[in-house]
Amino acid sequence: MDEVRVMIVDDDKSTREIVSMFLSHKKYKVFQAFDGQDALEKINLTDPQLVITDLMMPRMNGLEFIKRLKAMRPEIVVLAYSAFANFEMTADLLKAGAFFYMAKPFELSVLELQVSRGIEHYSLQSSAFNAVPHINNQSYFQNMIGHSKKMLAIFELIEKVADSDATVLIQGESGTGKELVARAIHDLSKRKNKNFVPINSAAIPDELLESELFGHMKGSFTGAIANRLGRFELADGGSIFLDEIGEMKIRLQAKLLRVLQTRELEPVGSHQLKKIDVRIIAATNQNLERLVAAKEFREDLYYRLSVIPIVIPPLRERREDIPVFISRFIEKFNLACKKKIKGIDSPAMDMLCSYDWPGNVRELENLVECLVVLKGSGIISRNDLPEKFQNMKTLVKNEDLTLPENGLCLNSAVSEFEDRLIMQALEKSAGNKKEAAILLNLKRTTLLEKLKKKNLAGKLSVSALSA
Fold first, then answer.
1. Is the Cβ–Cβ distance between 351 and 395 less than 8 Å?
2. Which CATH number do you get for residue 416?
3. Angle ∠(381,387,389) on CA atoms, nearest 5
4. 8: closest CA among 26, 33, 28, 25?
5. Is-cis flag, bond preceding 198, omega within 30?
6. Residue 341 neighbours by CB distance under 10 Å
7. Domain assignment of residue 229, yes or no
8. What does the alpha-carbon distance between residue 184 and residue 36 come to, in Å, rounded to a whole number?
9. How many structural domains comprise the chain?
10. Which of 194, 264, 328, 467 is the least crowded, having the fewest Cβ atoms under 10 Å away?
């Protein structure tokens, strides 16, 4: 490791200076922070491999700092020290992710030993935290960020399925990165030197989609002034990515099923079949099983497509990845927009990590771009966030969040809190579900699903509920 970067976090300036001078003499590059909040604001700028922190500090104690640091940058090794820690606190520190605890005052020789051990631990674990599949074209894979177990499991699955020719069905909400997964599968496969051809079924009018997919012959319809290859032929030898497959009409589904079964296609206006060799990767943000049950999607086609299903979790189910995305996006838009944003403070980060992100990674990226452009330089704070985030924080603060003496069921409490908010939104909108969804920053379909699942519609009068 060429340069070892260490941060010392302590509100006592003399301790900071002594530790900093000692470690600098030992050839470490040392940064200082006067408390946990200051440290969190400097982390992305200084990028330390190891942090040494006191526990008793103003604004944010050491235990809370370690928890937030580990949520942001789980690979950083933390050494903690205090003159007041007991057995219970030491256990909490280790549970929160601290590598080692030292009682204060400590010998500098002990500190040097533990720093050396911590850096060795960092080197051993860094490959695990940065583990991503080896791919030939990093540009297709660079935005697939994730330290969460769910994303690492998807990376592993991509590696396993890439070299087969089995059809893959990628499922996930809009904005979760389904095309990035499809590209990674192609780039890791034996077809990587051939074309990867995407097509969005929802973006092309129904009457033109068949021609786009399978091609057409000159004169086969008005405007067909020449023979044209379809996307399947363009992808011959490579992979085709059928995005928003749930939007495809039943008639065209039948023709797609035939291509899957026979590996032959028939261009519009032709009576000759053409052999093709294509890996098919499909994606949807809809529940295809529900569409099958409603007779809106062919059951046989569904089973043909979902030989290998990959489900991408929404951002709200992997909140630990949010700080990593934010850091990457700040870096990206600083470069693209020639700005000088140094990072984001912990109150703002807390707000963003608490938000449900109905638009997923795409929504987060758009927000960070907006914040970088408008702020220009310095640290992004909670006051820089849009009004909906300010309102969300205020709402939570005004609720009675006191834990009862006998404890409670967290899932039930969260569900009841959600019920109250939905009912309040419906009351404020006079039962108009579209307006209520806007108040809750939800899609109307999401709100309808919650109403049905929670059986909340019955709690308002029938006349009060409108579309």
1. no
2. 1.10.10
3. 65
4. 33
5. no
6. 24
7. yes
8. 38
9. 4
10. 467
Do 223 and 113 belong to one domain? no
Phi (first) and psi of residue 104, to 5 degrees:
-100, 135
The answer to whether 231 touches 240, Cβ cutoff 8 Å, is yes
Q: Count of residues for the chain?
A: 467
pLDDT digits (tens, 9 = 90+) for 343-371: 888 788 888 888 889 899 999 999 999 99
Tell me the HSE value of 163 on the side-chain side, using a 13 A CA sphere.
7
Based on the fold, state whether residues 125 and 187 are members of the same structural domain: no
Residues of the domain holding 46: 5-129
DSSP string, 141-185: TTT----SHHHHHHHHHHHHHHTS---EEEE--TTS-HHHHHHHH
The tally of CA atoms less than 13 A away on the side-chain side of residue 436 is: 27
Give the type of residue at 10. Answer: D
Strands 5-9 and 29-33, sheet pairing: parallel
Which of 323, 285, 368 shows the shortest CA–CA distance to 148? 323
- DSSP letters along 187-233, please? HTSTTTTS-EEEEETTSS-HHHHHHHHH-B-TTSSTT--S-B--HHH
247-280 residue pLDDT tens? 999 989 999 999 999 999 888 888 888 899 999 9
Three-state SS string across 223-289, please? CCCCCECCHHHHCCCCEEEEECHHHCCHHHHHHHHHHHHHCEECCECCCCCEECCCEEEEEECCCHH
Domain-ending residue, one of 287, 311, 335: 311
Q: Is 47 part of any domain?
A: yes
